[in-house]
Amino acid sequence: xxxxxxxxxxxxxxxxxxxxxxxxxxxxxxxxxxxxxxxxxxxxxxxxxxxxxxxxxxxxxxxxxxxxxxxxxxxxxxxxxxxxxxxxxxxxxxxxxxxxxxxxxxxxxxxxxxxxxxxxxxxxxxxxxxxxxxxxxxxxxxxxxxxxxxxxxxxxxxxxxxxxxxxxxxxxxxxxxxxxxxxxxxxxxxxxxxxxxxxxxxxxxxxxxxxxxxxxxxxxxxxxxxxxxxxxxxxxxxxxxxxxxxxxxxxxxxxxxx
Length: 258
Ligand SMILES: NC(=O)c1ccc[n+]([C@@H]2O[C@H](COP(=O)([O-])OP(=O)(O)OC[C@H]3O[C@@H](n4cnc5c(N)ncnc54)[C@H](O)[C@@H]3O)[C@@H](O)[C@H]2O)c1
Fold this sequence. Notes:
The chain is of the alpha/beta class.
């Protein structure tokens, strides 16, 4: 048995638009045999269609859907569309998220709440809705997305991001505890600085900061979205990780090891 084979499986990826980590996760799953339901905000329609075309070029089936992960009705509709199209969901890779760089004194309550709603509450809403589909079949893989700034913070004012993503890590452990009895594994990827994506592209204007980040990693380079995350996503989606649950796995070039 090939423990990394995803043939016949269906994966739902959020934040799946071209230009982000979700694009690469979706392609990796398709390369290993999975069909894909690709979700993102309606404003990303063209980028989402690019991911769909890339999946279909690999000979896999793909469907797109729009979602606001902070809205329960929208999450319900996304999952209903995915199961309506493919009949099941074996794997959830939940990448949708936002970052806000702002001093705490300047941040409004509405800004704080929007970050927490998308990053933390959105993860809970999406995980819970998809898990409801998985428990009846007694199998499923859920992969959440935190950040290298899960147990530590960075040098810039991003308190809502740090707090919400730290919450994602412990939410992952809590859900893994609850859903282990259904054979649903829940894990979390904590990426280092992956460049460039839509979120990290503004670093282009800050070459000194980019250089500092490179030097800050043991491996002396930033993460490459093409190659440095795909294997981990496939591992956590496949039978190879059937005894791995409740874990936060850092793919950060060593950043958080000291
Ligand atoms: N790129 C990195 O270096 C890095 C590092 C650490 C963590 N991350 C995390 O990885 C994930 C992907 O980041 P990325 O770098 O690909 O950035 P990205 O901005 O390209 O991807 C985030 C995606 O989330 C979607 N999204 C935002 N709000 C949404 C909402 N309310 N509903 C549905 N979708 C929504 C966006 O449209 C976008 O496609 C994020 O959760 C991010 O926090 C990225």
